[in-house]
Amino acid sequence: MPTTSARLLDALLRSIADLPPAQISKVESAITTARRRAEAAVEIDAIGEVRPCPRCGGHHRISWGTTRSGARRLRCKDCELTWTGRTGTPLAGIRRPDLFIELLRNMFEGESPWSCRKAATKLGISRDTAWRWRIAVIGLLSPEKPGALAGIVEADEARQRESRKGSREWSRHRADPLAVAKPPREPWVFYTKRNATIKAPPGGWQAWNKNLLAITDRAGHRAFEAIDNVGEKAVSTALLPTMAPDAVLCTDGHATYKGIAKATGITHFALNAGRRCRRTPKTHHINTVNSLIGRYRAFVKPFCGPASRYLLAYGRWHAARENTDRNYLSIFKRFLEQPHSANTLC
């Protein structure tokens, strides 16, 4: 005999077949929402099963119903506290964790990540909430593991003009010049608009470039690290921890990399302007890292120049999208494993 759930499912499928197209789209939307809630609830329940009581640390618990989001609620037998898998985590104040996990899915597996405005429209949340969620997510991303890049490793710099997007320092200085110091430069629009009286920022254009070091190997591992300058100390601090000791380094021939290779004994092949000499094997090139930098520039273009304070986070976000060992569920689990701090997610 079929179970009650099987009979209900059969009745639902028969009724869907008789619906007009306009109502079928509503059914699809309801199924999508149910899938989101179920996926979030499964991950939250898995963490809640292994986590001790947040108050007394006891492991004696019983089921105590479910939350509005569908997650299982537990009750401690010792102190009678009730909790779920996201109690005491940064996700504790989010009423719709299913929407948060949907944003994660788009950020790491979507063909093109949503802007904050588009995410707000798609998910039915505030634009500011979408922004806070995104910054919290990319701020949680960690660098590549030491020695993760092996074999033939390629490295090059990706430059971006310094940005103070969202800063109010210019308006605050104009409102109260005595209390707020003058910013070190004028807004970029003053230098680029037609008939601008200011031709270049203090120190010249090169002084306002921010650098990201792009590193990749042939196995598909990617890494982006922010560097203050292209000197040996800054580049070696970002480059050497990610490389295996026996890796071969291919670069564009900048003197910085030559100095690092000489000081550390790394096998280094310099390809000036991408050209190899007769002694350079055909397998050694920098096309992979140049392609990675090109994809990064296309990735950040829809965001209209992220602020320089978030440059490293955006670089690691792009690297995480490129690396196959990171997915949206692993990031969601990391949020459930983080201790509760100042809640910036809701």
Describe the SSE topology.
Layout: H1 4-17, H2 21-50, E1 61-66, E2 72-76, E3 82-83, H3 97-109, H4 116-123, H5 127-140, E4 152-161, H6 169-175, H7 189-192, E5 209-217, E6 222-227, H8 232-239, E7 248-251, H9 255-264, E8 267-270, H10 287-300, H11 311-322, H12 328-337
Parallel strand pairs: 4-7, 7-8
Antiparallel strand pairs: 1-2, 2-3, 4-5, 5-6
Helix pairs in contact: 2-3, 3-5, 3-12, 4-5, 5-11
Keywords summarizing the entry:
346 residues; alpha/beta; Nucleotidyltransferase, domain 5; 2 domains; five-stranded mixed beta sheet; three-stranded antiparallel beta sheet; 12 helices; 8 strands; 42% helix; globular
Q: Quickly count the domains.
A: 2
Largest sheet: 5 strands, mixed
Summing up helix and strand content along with how strands pair, one would put the structural category as: alpha/beta
- Strand content range: 5-15%
Low-confidence stretches: none
The number of distinct helices, counting runs of at least 4 residues, comes to 12
Distance between the termini: 47 Å
The global form is: globular
| DSSP E strands, number | 8
Helix content: 40-55%
Question: Which strand order spans the largest sheet, edge to edge or round the barrel?
Answer: 6-5-4-7-8
Rounded to an integer in angstroms, the radius of gyration calculated over CA atoms is 26 Å
Mean pLDDT: 87
Q: Helices and strands, in N-to-C order?
A: HHEEEHHHEHHEEHEHEHHH
